[in-house]
Amino acid sequence: MTLLTYLFKLNPWIYLLAAGVCEMGFTTFMKLSDGFRRWGFNVCFAICALLSFGLLNLSTRNLSLGTAYAVWTGIGAFGTAAVGILFFRDPVTLWRLTFLTT
Fold first, then answer.
1. Cα separation of 6 and 72, whole Å?
2. CA distance 51 to 43
3. What tens digit of pLDDT does each residue of 44-74 get?
4. Cβ 81 vs Cβ 31: under 8 Å
5. Tell me, what DSSP letter sits at residue 55?
6. C-alpha span between 35 and 54 (Å, rounded)
7. Alpha-carbon distance 69 to 71, whole Å?
8. CA 53 → CA 3, 17, 21, 39, 95, distances in Å?
């Protein structure tokens, strides 16, 4: 079995997890691109965005669209907020933490 064949037979939840991580990547690179003025980060943004949507598409072959979309956006939203707090000094407030964990 070739590597490509193996990758296309992975569990759809693995695709979905990877899609969510890529969503965190493209939002982070969008911030780092400084309004799409920094070429290197623009390229990273585009790669992560394409991977995220492509992996989401692969996951919906075996998962319902609603479930896949909810999980994908949840990983992306929570992960992006965590990246903001950990790396961009976004404020940590009681309300933010409450809404992120509920």
1. 23
2. 12
3. 999 999 999 999 999 999 999 999 999 999 9
4. no
5. H
6. 24
7. 6
8. 21, 12, 11, 21, 30
